[in-house]
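Hi W., the nicotinamide-adenine-dinucleotide complex you wanted:
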Amino acid sequence: MTDALDLAIVGCGGMGTRHMYGVKELAGLVEGGLGDVPAFRLAALCDRDARHRGILADLAEREMGHRPQTYESLEVLLDAHPDLAAVDVTTDTRPHHTLALQALQAGKHVQVEKPMALTVTACNRMMDAAAAARRVLAVAENYRRDPLIRLVRALLEAGAIGEPWMAVDASIGGAGRMIITPWRHKKAYGNSVLDVGVHNVDLLLYEVGPIDQVFAQVALFDRIRHRAEGASNISAFYAATAASAPDVVEADVEDTAFATLRFARGMLGQWTLSASGHGQGFGKKAIYGSRGSLEPGAPRSGNGPRLYLDGRREPASDDELLALVPDFAVDEGTARLFGGERLTRYSFDYPAIDRKITATVLMDFARAIATGRPPEVGGVEGRHAVAVCNGLFEASRLNRPVSIAAVERAEPEVSQWQRELDVELGLVA
Ligand SMILES: NC(=O)c1ccc[n+]([C@@H]2O[C@H](COP(=O)([O-])OP(=O)(O)OC[C@H]3O[C@@H](n4cnc5c(N)ncnc54)[C@H](O)[C@@H]3O)[C@@H](O)[C@H]2O)c1
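Structure:
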């Protein structure tokens, strides 16, 4: 078995906590041997907030039997751990690029949570730094790793709906509540269209390929956001950050986008995303092709895809789905975590699903480090998702469609909305 790699988690809020559980889950999986995949050993934690890092260190000690060392700054952490192999950045989005650059320049492999960074220029700097340092740069995009999303792609590739022509993706909700944390409503730290939207874009990228043009109108309707009452699937992970969150935050950035998408393969898409929806929430995603439509189940729900073929009223059965993809099988690690190579559904409680999926994200990062094989979601994929989401703001400001390739190159004409951030972040003069 390959030796475990020393890892530091930077950012001890909700996602840092979830990554700690993922590290533990991966260690359990690798114990029985998993080809060329090493485990991670959580050597250190960093958070600028002493309470947050203390809470996660206590939890890690209880869960894993050893207490990671804790630091206020990444600089001090890197000096104290010369043998560290990798840094896992789980802070809010604003400092992703600064921390990634610091770690890469110190010769560490880096994984950052999604969104890869606040702007495309920041993503480009990270990609350049990873190439110069010859180190892995991975983006911890988790939704595509769900074994049932793997099945969605296999079905589309096998031509289950014929040639894909159109995609519709809509999610509306929010009802005046804060979207998890206050920073998701502040432009300088992120916004809900970017924060949630990168998942939608990455799923589309994985399922049907890249988007080459977007047009959109964006808006902010619900300025005053109140702390959500009651428990959600993920509130248990936010014990540290929720305690210090204000009851109310005033949003300064749009949280609603109505967009049309054109895909490189010629498909068209319609995408609606809003955190200003009151009353009955709305969510629907469907991919339409020349002989049927496919509705992926929500990632991490355990629900598989529904395939509707022309001339049939009922969706295809599980057996019919699998018969369409005779060669489909998820990788060994995912199969062991979820209990099968060819699943059409699964049932675990939410924390178990979350740590299994986080373990698959970390598994890919560990394999990339050990083998030199690129991570599944690297700079190119992470930047694409940021470019499409930020492209909605650019298109809305210009009141015309924008080319995603031009946004990815940070061409000034299509970088006006992002420029304000780039100046503030010190990325451009
Ligand atoms: N993949 C997913 O499903 C998923 C879900 C939630 C969040 N996320 C992503 O994870 C990241 C973190 O989100 P969260 O909800 O956990 O946020 P959070 O506010 O709960 O936690 C962020 C933590 O980072 C710390 N921090 C901020 N700047 C720092 C710095 N410069 N150095 C050290 N520590 C610093 C904060 O003190 C805080 O403890 C975001 O990029 C978010 O988009 C991903």
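The first strand starts at residue 5 and ends at 10.

W.
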